[in-house]
Amino acid sequence: MELFSVHEYREPLIEKIIEQFKFRGGKPLARLMAKEMIRMIDKEEISDVVFIPIPLHWTRKIWRGYNQSEALLMAIKKENPRIKIQTRGLKRIRKTAQQSKLNREERLKNLQNAFEWQGEEIPQKIVLLDDVIATGSTLLGAAEALKKAGCQKVYGLTFAYGSGR
Fold first, then answer.
1. How many CB atoms lie within 10 A of CB 112?
2. Nearest-CA neighbor of 142 among 109, 99, 113, 100?
3. Which position has the higher pLDDT, 48 or 101?
4. What's 58's domain CATH number?
């Protein structure tokens, strides 16, 4: 899986933006973040790609009030209406522990078999969208489910990357 990220998580401002966006009701930050992420999208090669946000388990979505990856995707779609999106096919089928509280080994185990494609026809090229990547376990777990369902190529796009403890 090819991965594209805009910023390094260790930058103090980026860390603050992610924390506010994810844990402190900072949904309005999605537009600012989307403007940065849209630079990573090659305008010529988006016609046959479908963008999919990393899904939250329904209980986490209720607790947080929104899916931060979906909020980012909707803001990106506003910036570039030509992109194709799919928000319902990929599901998180089991509740998992919060990744930010786990070490690398625990994160990898936590996301095993956590995702499943429940949509109709699987797109052949998908960009998985998330706010931040640490170990890659979330994106890899989702990509595995998509490939199992028949997707040919999966890319990852995140606002920030960091080292996964």
1. 13
2. 113
3. 48
4. 3.40.50
Tokens 């009030």, located at residue: 65
Is a pLDDT exceeding 80 seen at residue 34?
A: yes
pLDDT of 132 higher than 80? yes
Query: CA angle, 108 as apex, 52 and 120 as ends, to 5°?
Result: 30
Count structural domains, the chain.
1
- Domain of residue 139 covers 2-161
Q: What is the pTM of this model?
A: 0.89
Rounded to an integer, what distance in angstroms lies between the CA atom of residue 83 and that of residue 97?
Answer: 32
Question: What is the distance of C-alpha 7 from the center of its chain?
Answer: 15
DSSP string, 93-154: -S----GGGS-HHHHHHHTTT-EEE-SSSPPSEEEEEEEEESSSHHHHHHHHHHHHTT-SEE
Average pLDDT, the chain: 89
How far apart are alpha carbons 115 and 50 in whole angstroms? 17
Among residues 85, 73, 87, the alpha carbon closest in space to that of 130 is found at 73
Query: Can you give the pLDDT at residue 165?
Result: 47
